[in-house]
């Protein structure tokens, strides 16, 4: 096992972090991974373990910072971190389990990082990790966890964020037309919770393709189809479409819930929506968010809107209940959306700029309590 603390962290460094960037390589198990611990002033970092074939150091650093801001924004006693494993998440289960074990061994001594599930990993991955390291969140219920994917913590938080945003726009959830890009756990639960408020899912995409249904999908049927292991592209409702058609389709809410930077300068002028609620981390470039604001499209930033998962994880880590987790998600996200959009409205800042100020203020206040040698 080769574990290296790299010097490339200095090109990313600012007054908040990162505190360490660690590259890990185990040729015996095929492990290639990166861990970024960004800031631990408020407490040990919580952040997910992402598995994909095209992850990079830059992406990991950006995601770790997003977790620092998200955890600070949510008022958690935790800093932010992120890990990425360069591998195909759809590999056979035995091989994936072995790779997760190798990763857990590699981070065993990094005690200021608490891993959780993310794209490409799940509750089983976290159970394996905890067995080796003694720490993980997003665990199966059978070992005392609050299963984030099962209860839909992040999707529920998106609903709370959109409910709170109604005070700042003429948008209303009842009857709202929703498009979701990325129909994994976050996207599916967001669709479910939003439909409970009268919203209509009119567009959806996953790795298999895009489907549009202007009159609204039969959501229970679509969810059952998707959970049966199928792509939405093969569903028998609505029509197959392109990504460009999904971007240009008229809707009230567009939810990116997959990879970073899907909203960029090349497509930002094609969006035909009132609100973008960021279910994924860093799903839009900075320039794209500025252009969306110029076009009058409200953006609810990722580390405000999608904090439900990490809020739930923190409650689990401190041995709280599922009921406490859902109540905490509702309270924290509602307050933070109101505070962010109020500051944005009063100052003329972008919502992200306002939220960044709030979160950075909280991180620096936590850093003020650190002992300096």
Quick overview:
With 373 residues, the chain is an alpha/beta fold. Helix content is 41%, strand content 18%. The strands form two sheets. A seven-stranded mixed beta sheet has the order 10-9-8-7-11-12-13. A six-stranded mixed beta sheet has the order 1-2-3-5-4-6.
The CATH C-level class name of the largest domain: Alpha Beta
Number of strands: 13
Low-pLDDT segments: none
Which second-level CATH architecture of the largest domain applies? Answer: 3-Layer(aba) Sandwich
Helix content: 40-55%
Largest sheet: 7 strands, mixed
Q: Please write the string of helix (H) and strand (E) elements.
A: EEEEHEHEHHHEHEEHEHEEHEHHHH
Can you give the mean pLDDT?
94
DSSP summary: helix tally: 13
Structural class: alpha/beta
User: What count of structural domains?
Assistant: 2
Give me the CATH superfamily of the largest domain. Answer: NAD(P)-binding Rossmann-like Domain
């Amino acid at each position: 096992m080769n574990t290296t603390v790299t010097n490339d962290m200095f090109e990313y460094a600012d007054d908040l972090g990162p505190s360490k960037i660690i590259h890990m390589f185990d040729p015996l198990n095929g492990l290639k991974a990166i861990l970024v611990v960004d800031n631990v002033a408020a407490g040990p970092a919580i952040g997910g373990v992402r598995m994909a074939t095209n992850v990079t150091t830059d992406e990991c650093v950006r995601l770790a910072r997003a977790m620092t801001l998200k955890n600070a924004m949510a008022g958690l006693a935790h800093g932010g971190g992120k890990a990425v494993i360069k591998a195909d998440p759809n590999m056979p289960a035995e091989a994936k389990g072995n790779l997760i074990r190798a990763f857990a061994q590699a981070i065993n001594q990094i005690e200021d990082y608490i891993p959780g599930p993310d794209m490409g990993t799940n509750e089983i991955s976290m159970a394996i990790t905890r067995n080796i390291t003694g720490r993980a969140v997003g665990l199966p219920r059978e070992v005392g966890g609050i299963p984030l994917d099962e209860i839909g913590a992040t999707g529920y938080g998106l609903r709370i964020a959109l409910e709170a945003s109604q005070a700042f726009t003429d948008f209303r959830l009842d009857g709202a037309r929703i498009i979701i890009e990325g129909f994994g756990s976050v996207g599916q639960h967001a669709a479910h919770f939003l439909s409970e408020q009268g919203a209509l899912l009119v567009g959806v995409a996953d790795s298999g393709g895009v489907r549009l249904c202007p009159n609204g999908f039969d959501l229970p049927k679509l969810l059952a189809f998707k959970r049966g292991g199928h792509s939405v592209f093969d569903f028998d409702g609505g029509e197959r479409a392109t990504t460009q058609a999904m971007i240009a389709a008229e809707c009230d809410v567009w939810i990116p819930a997959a990879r970073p930077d899907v909203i960029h300068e090349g497509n930002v002028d094609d969006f035909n929506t009132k609100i973008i609620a960021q279910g994924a981390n860093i799903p839009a470039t900075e320039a794209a968010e500025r252009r969306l604001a110029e076009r009058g499209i409200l953006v609810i930033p990722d580390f405000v809107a999608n904090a439900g998962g990490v809020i739930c994880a923190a409650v689990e880590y401190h041995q709280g209940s599922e009921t406490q987790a859902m109540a905490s998600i509702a309270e924290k996200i509602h307050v933070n959306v109101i505070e962010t959009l109020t500051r944005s409205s009063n100052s003329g800042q972008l919502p992200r700029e306002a939220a960044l100020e709030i979160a950075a203020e909280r991180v620096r206040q936590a850093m003020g309590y650190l002992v300096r040698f």
